[in-house]
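User: Structure please.
Assistant: Input sequence and predicted structure:
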Amino acid sequence: MKITLSDTQLLSPQQIGELASNLDAIHARVLKAIERLNKDVAAKKTEIASRWKNAPGVGAGELARFAQNETLAAVRQIRDNSKAELDALLKQAGAPHAQLIAQKPFYDSPAKVLARAALGDPKRTEYLQQLQHAGPAELGHMAQVAVGTRNVALASAVLSLIDRLPTKDRPVGPVELATAMKQDEFLKVQEYIKLGDARLQGILVTIRAWNAGKANPISSIQLAMRERDIDHELIGGGDE
């Protein structure tokens, strides 16, 4: 199988978590900005309504029309004035999200993570030497031992040896073995990426709703489903 090499730097789960946290913080700032802007709109509507309420010499129908026209213009002005601030926040979110997504090729399979988990560990080298002549049955048993003892070095060595076998002779698949190891490094990164994706989508949905003057129900439902799919307990903290 041929692959295309890139110069993307491999980040640690902690670094990836920091990118997700950055997006989470920017998302919170967007929500606060929209909350402030909505208060500005409400205050302006109240001010205009109060000013036109008892204007002398003007009929009720005209009063309502004048108030409505002024309100629309005022709200439009507030939206126009907010564009630079919201565009800047969206731009700030773009960079960490791009870095986050660039890590997917390194973490899109638990087998990849397990394969590099114990690189440089003398125990992995020792296991490889001890098991280099092992057959499928022994490798299968060692895979079970690795899973049962959470021995990452052993699992990584067994994975390497299993990967050399013809598919039909493998006692367990590489992905199956890696999945059974339940590696925090793999599992947490999946949730960090989900969190980062959800926060960027939340920023987009919130800004679009503000610009349109109303929320899109479908977008809101999709965003809620993304949020529900994140295991906050695994990565620590909840939706803030």
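The mean pLDDT is 93.
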